[in-house]
């Protein structure tokens, strides 16, 4: 019992939570925006992988870290445009197209990576983002270590969650996005073009997913390997449901999952006699349990996964 | 007469082989209520969708205050002051009333929605026209009548001066409909111009100043409400003289279905209490009442989809337990459910599949569906019951409401049921289909079927039923003989006042 408390009381745990949560926050917000407009984007896993690869590759070739993030965002936007073309303009099945985008983007990532970096014994590295020294705050006891030793993209992720909550619920464009996801026919009848809104949401959402991937190679690690996203995209899709499509709760959900993950990592080191795979499973099992409890009351966007075709009722 | 606010000039629209609108011209004056009357498929909704910019016409033009309206953009129509209240509401259930109304009314890239101003404007409009609504309620939590109010408010919020309502009463109860028409008259007095689409003669006569009749995509007549009659309008609308069938006297037979003190409780609420009736072979027993008073549980109970919590049910004189759907079908009870799209038929399945679904064992051998026999059965229904718009293999969704109802009727009546439970059988149907449905029900009665007719439509009950009971708050009044009941007395009964209502005649 006391080891549990020790783990919980260590600043390192809380710092790890924020670090683990960051790519999830970006990815979940991206998927959430897209789904709010009525488009499920299962391309997320592949888009994150591609963002991780292209962001890293850009920096490896000499651009600075923030430009690397921007390159990843632009690449994500392109995949978003592809997904939107398939699901919005052509009105194809969102599930199938999303999985297609994931398969394509993942393989394409590996292909580009291998073209640029031929097989080597140890993968080449870059110098990643360094923890941001914040005057006063970073030197607070405990809190400084636990919260204020993150890299800049982590703070960006939290800021984007707050901005997205404001945009969705306090601005006309946010209302247009929600209306496009609830009833595109009504949006059209009110003079809002749901096709354009959906395009915008899918493209911006995919850019965020790719930034989430880039965080892995530009901040969490310093090199790229093709399997590094490791299902984080799928976790994001589940977190969107867990959050009832609300950015604030998405932030909370990502932190909760990260807590489980960081906690089990530390448990592995102190508990003996239990195969470590059991601990690896726990965050996912707890996530499913949390989903089962939270998602029952969730209000799904009514037009999610329904293609909009003009003039058809 | 002042210059018209709206002029529609020579509008034509073709969908494939179907000429939906053929050179239609009409005008609308300020403060006027015009009814667009026609059967389903006459082209009313197409015309209004063209006016509102959902469709682009093949020919013709629209002018508002003398200025030509660009076609095909709802935005232009809204800006010109046209508002449309769709039959299937254009609303989002998960958004609030205010959010539904505000969508599209502001510049998209404003940094903050002007909710305070919008709320104030909405409140002012709702007070001016007496349309009360809670701006912060989630739309999906409102009743259908309230949702319609939101739809109207949405149009008014966009400063609509011309309001188009597509079959506004189709989803409303009688009382809600009356309230709506009072509101609409009031709006016209305040200078708005209104067009409402309808196929109901009563409401057209009661609410409109002028009536434009469409048939087969053409405008066939235009009448002032004061100068015409229901009979004339019906003839103009259908193109031939139609009269609703009348009940011939008959001698009812033995009691086939009897309920004694039946109660149904759902989720702790008594939906039916002490319900008692006896249904004779060869008679129509009408259950009349305002919607939501227990009609749905009663129909479901007798259709085998709901279990009773107390009381006895006697079928052909024998006490029975709780009936399953299969029991009901086997017992020769035909059913016409209230919600024909939800419970009556599966839209995505073929007509033949819907025709045989409830008696699949009879059309199956060795685990395989006998497609040929099923198709033949569906073909026979289509022919005998005049189902138009599809063949046995086409999807049921493509049928109009009236034809789907004929399919459901045919599926039941071709089996010569001993009992028929008909819930709101003519709701939402156009005059031609109503006549067909009524005729079939009376035919079944003549052939000895016992019919339980559950309806909110007083005229329908009076013209079809031999005896009438009112349903109020889950209780049934004692029966009265139809010949001895008048509308006033039945109205009292529907209000729950059946001591006064029933003094005239008790009949069993």
TrEMBL record, chain A:
Gene Ontology annotations for the cellular component aspect, listed alphabetically: plasma membrane
GO MF annotations, alphabetized: transmembrane transporter activity
Subcellular localization(s) per the UniProt record: Cell membrane
Transmembrane segments: 12-32, 39-59, 65-88, 95-113, 152-169, 199-218, 274-295
Entries under Pfam families matching the protein: BPD_transp_2
Signal peptide: none
Protein keywords: Cell membrane, Membrane, Transmembrane, Transmembrane helix
Topology of this chain in the membrane: Multi-pass membrane protein
Name of the protein: ABC transporter permease
UniProtKB/TrEMBL annotation, chain B:
Any Pfam family: ABC_tran
Claim: Repeat is one of the keywords in the record: yes
Transport recorded as keyword: yes
GO molecular function, one term: ATP binding
Family membership: Belongs to the ABC transporter superfamily.
PANTHER family per record: CARBOHYDRATE TRANSPORT ATP-BINDING PROTEIN MG119-RELATED, GALACTOFURANOSE TRANSPORTER ATP-BINDING PROTEIN YTFR
The protein's name in its UniProt record: Sugar ABC transporter ATP-binding protein
Organism, as annotated: Pararhizobium antarcticum
